[in-house]
Amino acid sequence: MLKIVTAAVLAASLGACASATRGLDESVTFTSNPLGATVTTSLGYVCAATPCTIDIPRRKEFEAVFSKPGFKTATVSVKTKLAGAGAAGFAGNILIGGVVGMAVDAGTGATLDHHPNPVVVTLEPEGRAPARRHGRRPRPTS
């Protein structure tokens, strides 16, 4: 009987709060102006045309590269940071998951959110002339 109780307590502690309530992946939304850009992430995920959403492991930081014919490529760094709801779930381990639950939440990244999310980019047309400065040119000195 003691083995059954021990196994039940261990199984309950493995269901870490943030992992159970928030999940291990987060939906990250990508959009661009103009729409229809391809997004390729440094994690290997690809979105054929914006707007789109990709489920990405919460603990993974990545680069998102936006490309569209006729426009310059744009890259955005997407980082992770502790989320308010993730911190609350992590703290809930004191009541339910214990030290094992805290370790699971910390190791899986369940307490993290991606930033920015949504990832929004305005693509610049190719071949745009550099901005001209107004005013007089300085005279060369001899």
Structure description:
The termini are far apart. This protein is elongated. It has a 5-stranded antiparallel beta sheet with strand order 3-2-5-6-7. A 3-stranded mixed beta sheet has the order 4-1-8, with no helix packed on it. With 142 residues, the chain is α+β, with helices and mostly antiparallel strands. It is 27% helix and 31% strand. The protein has 4 helices and 8 strands. It has one domain.
The average pLDDT value, as a whole number, equals 76
DSSP strand count: 8
Q: Strand fraction band?
A: 25-35%
Biggest sheet strand line-up = 3-2-5-6-7
Please describe the biggest sheet, giving its number of strands, its sense, and whether it closes into a barrel. 5 strands, antiparallel
SSE series: HHEEEEEEHHEE
- Fraction in helix: 25-40%
The coarse overall form would be elongated
Number of helices: 4
Biased composition (Basic residues): 130-142
Region (Disordered): 115-142
Protein name: Translation initiation factor 2
Keywords: Signal
Please sum up the structure shown.
The chain is an alpha+beta fold.
Defining traits:
alpha+beta; three-stranded mixed beta sheet
SSE diagram, text form:
Elements: H1 2-14, H2 17-22, E1 25-33, E2 38-41, E3 46-47, E4 52-57, E5 62-67, E6 74-82, H3 84-91, H4 98-108, E7 112-115, E8 119-122
Parallel strand pairs: 1-8
Antiparallel strand pairs: 1-4, 2-3, 2-5, 5-6, 6-7
